[in-house]
Amino acid sequence: MQLTLPLPELAQLSFGAAPSPSHRVYCNRSLRLDQIEWVGFDMDYTLAIYDQREMDRLSIEATLAKLTQRGYPESLQTASYRTDFPIRGLLVDRKLGNVLKMDRYKYVKRAYHGLTELTKEERRHTYHTRRLRADSARYHWVDTLYALSEVAVYAAAIDHLERLGVEVDPDRLFGDVRECIDLSHQDGSILDHILADLPRYVQRDPLLARTLHQLRSAGKKLFLLTNSHGPYSDRMMSFLLGEGLPQYRGWRGYFDLVVCASRKPRFFTGDAEFEELLPDGTRRALPNGIPRVERGRMYLGGNIESLQTALGTTPDRVLYVGDHIYGDVLRAKKESAWRTMMVVQEMSDELVAHGEVEHSLARLDSLEDLRLRLLEELRDHQVVLKALERKRAAKKELTPTEDAERVRHRHAVDRLKQRVRLAEREHDELERGVDRRFHRYWGSLFKAGGEVSSFGAQVETYACLYTSRVSNLLRYSPMHFFTSPRDRMPHELP
Ligand SMILES: [Mg+2]
Predict the structure, then answer these.
(1) Domain-by-domain residue ranges, the chain?
(2) What band does 11 get if pLDDT is binned at 50, 70 and 90?
(3) What residues contact 41, with CB distance under 8 A and at least 6 apart?
(4) How far is the CA of 41 from the centre of ligand 1 (A)?
């Protein structure tokens, strides 16, 4: 039985005004919240927002220590690494040791070798002359916030080892970096540190408890579906919700079903059985394989089909909230009819930057228009000029009127070429400045030049909704109708 709780705050909250950009929930595909019966949550980087710099530092230090144990030079541990270098959505070229950012058409817009940017020519020569097979073993897609530290270590190690004159096999180095990070996660080098100092690594959201409570009060049921292990999840969730609302005795009171160690993305495609983790730490197989919807229990493993049976509703009435484009959002979308919401914690910074460069973006648009107009004018003059010059070459002489015309067009061509150059220079400088405001190395997370970035395109394709924090839902009525901007193809535009 779903317990409908009184929610006095609900009456006081006004859902009329649109929240500020950083508190907004953005919509790619329309979704009626009143039609949603179950809301499921991933935990890490979704309910638990980690401090990225602190996490990266922890992970990088653990990884560098393990790399030297594997025979890499001791000095690697003192190599300077930049936690602000990587962003999500980058592609690692394991063959050449480069890191790339692409637009939605897999066109490489920016590339670095170590921390040195490739020139336009180098980029063109290496990546633009043939099709880039981003899904081949040569390339590795950086799609989680966990993976950012891999890129920071990789770029620093390439720089450091090449400077030492050490022969580097970029593919092997990347494999070693990945293994060392995985090992650090498995052997507790990272998780133990986090648990020992949660406030340092995790930003507790004071509105999270109210957000979950608001959904419950509207009659929705909630589940947790995380890859983290039971004891870790228990500690983390207690930290996030333990001192939440007085109506709840502990974090488990907010959830009707809890699944840990779920092994997503395999959870969506495999047929692993659910087990129940009992309070004494032992595991119990389930008689019919289906977990029970009952607060206080914790299940492990499992698969989407059995979970769907337990939820007892149709998949289109389930909203799953996660941060991992592949493991949470893309797989949920491809293997089920679940609706999806993606938490993109970088959005807060992205939106601030966007607000600051709005004027520059408008200026960029007008410079692009200006350039096209000038080029058209230029072509008109060039056509006439060429005809007059051909005539002069053939007849050796022009009439005085024709010659005056020729000179006039010649001057116009020179003047227009100069104006095009100036417009292009202003455009490029302004674009650089805009990019730098978003991110020193890579520019905006969602855009690549004038195009949507490959990361942005994935968010657009697979996430029905996206937002920077789960608690932004608090600013919307649990009955809200999220509507997407009307989708129009180029031939439908005015
Ligand atoms: Mg996660």
Answers:
(1) 8-13+23-48+204-350, 52-196, 358-444
(2) very low
(3) 47, 222, 223, 224, 225, 320, 321, 322, 470
(4) 9
